[in-house]
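Exercise 7.
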Amino acid sequence: MVLGFCAAGSAPAQGVATPDAADAGGSARPAPQQSAAPRIGVEGQRTAELSLQNGGVVGEGDQLSGTVALANRVDEAASAGEIVIRIAPATIDTRYDLDSWWDPEEDWQLGTEVYRAPVSELEAGSTITLPVTLPESATELLEGGPFGARGISVQWVEGEDLVAEGRSTLVWDAESSAQPVTVSPIVPIVAPVTDRALLSIEELEELTAEEGRLTELLDAVEGSSATLAIDPRLLVSIRALGDDAPETALEWIERLEALENDSFPLEFADASLTLQQQAGLEEPLEPTDFSYETSQHEFLVEVNPDADGEGAGQDAEADAQETGAPTGTGEAGPTPPQTTGAADAAGAEPDATDPAGTAPEEAEADGEEEPETESVPPPGLEELLAFDYTRDDLQWPAAGTVSDLGALAEWRGGTVILDGAQVTLSPDRYATPSSQHRIGDTEVLVTDTQIDQAVADAVTAESPMEFQDGAAEVATLLSVVSRELPNEAREIVTTLPRSALEDPSRLGELLDQLDSHGWTSLAPAPAAASDPAALTETELLPMPHSEAAIGKFNALREAETRGIALSSLYEDPGEVTGELRAELLFALNGGLIQSDRWDTVSGSFVRLATDAADRISVVEGSEIQLIGHESSLPLFVENATDREVTVVVELRPTTGHLSVTDSATVVVPPGGVTRATLPVEAIANGVSGVEATLWTVDGTPLNSEADLVVNVNSTLESVAVVLLIGSGVVLFVLGVWRTLRRRRRERSEEVGQSSDG
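Solution. The predicted structure, written as tokens, is:
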């Protein structure tokens, strides 16, 4: 920790920077080079901060170096002055003394001056950083002294006036008989919070690239004793892509499976168990189906010829199914896509016509043929989630959210990793206890809140200076813990932030430092106690979620229930309900719940679950003319969703002019319109209102209702028939009359001819 604060009553003074200054021994020293610094300090104050290299650890023969940051966050320029660094030679032996040193209100003897250098005028609102290297006399001051932490300070002075003071610590790394403190880091293997439950191909390509964040995360923990808390979301995201999974992602998951670190699973998407428990659920929510993703991809396995040259792909698939292992590469993934990136791997540039850099003739010349593959069924839920965890007896609720430890133990069992702020330790304790305790019948690993925060400061640092500050605080805290009870071994569990690290290399650097210190040793999380009753008992300080958070969770559950009821709209309801459950768990991510993004993600889930009820509708048109006693009423159904849906259309007349005897079931393509016709019977003439409603095939109503106007003319059909019959009779009579008249005329002509003869 680096503390910078303004001296009371200090006033700016004018002056000019000098090129030289005298050090503590009176010799001339060059002024440190000044450079622009990130915006540091406190608004309205002048502050000084000191950050030491190597995490503040120095041994015999080492030279102390670091950075001084000065901030002038007031409206007036600070005149030229000096910086003075002092070391307090006495060791800091208790956490109480350490807190006192870091408290700017506490009056401490700052010790011996070991460095002095000039600084130039600092304009209002500006900051500078000053790289400093302390003389050998600074280390000589510590030689012969015992191992342990010391206070080191920097003062920004102008003449006799103190402008600002900052305090830090260093650890003198001398031989010690004290028992090293065993440190067990819990490292979450999680992906950044994105827009959906499963990561996209593009996101995985970026995260698992050579310098991707997930790749660097494995670089950081590989070979260490860190215990890994793995989010199954990563496993499913890669495996569900089948042959479309990026090669780098498949290699990453194989590398994860090969690590020797202890590991245990988080909830899918790191969903909050405590929120579910406090909302009254009887059992935790689990993923149900990922076929909504796997159905979009092809899963291939290589056909391995047997001794007779016949394909053995089916045998390989059958063997995989018998053992419960997924087909393809990895524990539960598909065969990696067949890529030919040899040119890229060798650093060669592929040409435009052969992007992979391996022309067919070259492959043939080498005697290589593309392996034959065959399609296999997608992996199921168990295969997608499978991983060989070594510590699945561990569970890790989000810090500051546990209210009922017994309920969590019933759900997942085993040992609970519990934030130190949630326990009551013995008031008469005089030293830092080990992490292993029990609360009632439940074994807990209680983290040290102050160490957790220091670790978080180091691994989330945005600059090298911030990292050194955090690493120095971690080293100091653990050195003090070691000196508290030098003859007693302690095991301290420390947890990292649950979010994806922006720069995982800082974690690797911190783990390397902890592994190199003589007063610390890294180890996996402590094994479950053989006799839990013998553990020191402590008490839980309940810290429930807010009523607002529980209310929002209940709203999300209601939306999921509504979405499940609507799932029969689709050809495969299981795909829809599986996606809803995955997205719900994603919306319950512990980090999201505590961030400003929770409202946005929650709103997206509610729309995903329930929008279909609003986006499938009857198209309202002009007045419908209905002629006849029995007819069909036409109407159009519009589907504004991106999936094909099957809906049932029902009509309800608002008057007695019509009778509707049946409904109609229609299939509507995504973004399309389909015509539906429903049989109706006219009872009487007149204008009738008809209410059209839409339903799922299992009887769940949609939100769309349309009021249609129908003009019923049932008698027009009878009139038309009478007219037609009448017309036929008239035509028949006319025909008969004309026939009789013609015959009469013909007879008259015959009689006339006879008379003439």
